Fold this protein.
Amino acid sequence: MKRLLPRLLMAPAIGTLFLWMIVPLVMSIYFSVIRYNLMQPDQVGFIGLENFEYFITDPSFMTATMNTLLLVGSVIVITVVFGTLIALLTDDPFPGRNIVRILLISPFFVMPTVNALLWKHMMMNPIYGVLAQVWMFFGFTPVDWLTDWPLWSVILIVSWQWLPFATLIFVTSLQSMDREQLEASRMDGANYLQQLRYLYIPHLGRSFAVVVMIEMIFLLSVFAEIYTTTGGGPGDASTNIAFLIFKQALLNFDAGVASAGALFAVVLANIAGVFLIRMVGKNLDK
Amino acid sequence: MTQLQINLAMKVLRTILSWAVALFLFFPLGWLVLTAFKTELQAIAVPPLLIFTPTLENFTIVQERSDYMLYAQNALITSIASTILGLMLAFPAAYSMAFFKGKHTKDILMWMLSTKMMPAVGALVPIYVIAQTVGLLDTRTALTIVFTLSNLPIMVWMLYSNFKDIPGEILEASRMDGATLWQEFRMVLLPLTMGSLASTGLLCLVFSWNEAFWALNLSAAKSGTLATLIASYSSPEGLFWAKLSAASFMAIAPIVVFGWFSQKQLVQGLTFGAVK
C-alpha cells in the first residue's frame, strides 16, 4: 500500500505524457523511412534514409538551424540584460510603481499572433508604420524591416513579448534581497557597481537559471510570430527549424521529409535538454 | 549639494526613467488600443494621429465579418477545460512526487520537462493524422486534449516545486489522528495548496488562451480560437488596420485584464519556487 499509492497517483500524468511523446515519435520514425507525400498518394514504400538525406542536404536546413540558435540565443541575452536593468531600476519604491509594473508586464499576456500583426503592420510598415514615421521625423530613410532585417525583426518582436517575463521574475527575486546587508555594504563604502557585482548579481543567480530554462523551452519552438509576419522569408532568411518542418509538411505536403525534420528537432531539443538539466540541476536543486 | 539633495535628485531621476521605460515598452500595445477606435483613414494618417474622435464602427464590422462570439466561446471553453483537466492530472502526480519522494522522482520530473522541449511541430504530422483518423479535426475536444498535454509538464513542475515547501509532517500528523485520504486532501492539503493551484491554473489559462500553433493547425471555422481569428486577418495586404486592431483588442482584452488582476499569483507560480 505504501508504495502502491504514490505510483497510482503519478500514473495518469506519466501515462498520458508518455503516450503524448511516444506515439508521435514512433509514427514520425515510421513516416520518416517511407515515401509519404500527401499529393502523391500512389507512391508508397520503404525508402530508408532518403528523407533524412533530403532534409539535411536541403540548403534551407543549415540556414534554419543557424536561425534557430540565433533566435533563441539573442532573445535570451536581450531579455536577461534588459530585464535585469529594468528590475534594478524599479526596485526602490517610487510614485506610481504599481502602474509601471502593470504597464511593463502587459505584453506577456498578448497572444503571439496579435503581437506579430501589431508589429508587422502598425510598427514596422515602411510607409505608415510608427517606426517609419519616427525615422522620417529625424530625417532618415524609413527601413523596410521585415524585408531587409527579417530575422532581427522577429527577434525584436519575440524579445518584446518575453522581456516582461524576465523583468517580473527578477523584480520578484530582488524583493527578497537582504536590505540590511545592502545598507551595511553602503556604510562600508561600497559603490553601486560593487554592490551590483557582489550582492545583486549573485542574488539573482537562481532566477537567471529559471528565466533561461523557461525561455529556452518556449523559444525553441517559436512559430506564430514567424507564420504571421515574414512567413519564413524572404527566402529562408527568417525560417527556423520549427517553421521549416511546417513548410515541408503543410506547404509541400511531404509528410515523410517533415517527419525526418521533426526527428532532428527532437534531437536538438534533447541536446538543449541535457545542457539545461546540468545547469538547472545545479541551480535549482536545493 | 548635500547628501539629502543628491538622494532626492536620484529618486526623481529614477522615477522619470522608470516611467519612461514603462511607457516606451507599453507603447505598441497602447497604439493598438488607440487604432481600434479610429477610422481606417485616421489609422494610416501621416503624421500619426494622437487626438481624434473615437468611433465604435470597427467593432461592429468585425463582429459582422467574422463571428467573434463563436471564437471567443471556443477560446474560453478550451482554455478552461484544459486547465481543469490538467490540474486533475498534475495534482496527484505532484503530490506523490513531493510527499513520497523516491529515487527516480528527479529523473521523472526532468523527463517530463524534456517532453515540453520537443517543438510541437515535431508531433504535428502524427497528431494531425490521428486527429483526422478519429474524426477530431476541427473540434474543441482535440484542442482541449492537446492544450492539456502541452501544459502538463509545466503544471506538474510548478505544483511540485510549491508542494515540496510544505512540511510532510503536517500530513503525517493528520494521518496519525485518523484522517482518511479524502479528509487529508480536503481538510489539510487543499487549504495549504490553494495558492499554488490558483497560480498554476492561471498560467495555464493564459497559455491556452494564447496558444497559436495547435489552434492554427488543428482547427478551422468550427473550433478555431481567437488566435486563429486574428491570424485570418494577416493574409490580405490591404490597409485595414483599424479593424485588425479592433479584432485584436477584443481578443487580448479579456486575458490582459485577467493577467493584471492575477499578476502576483502568476509570478509566484512562474518562478518554480526558485525565487522567494
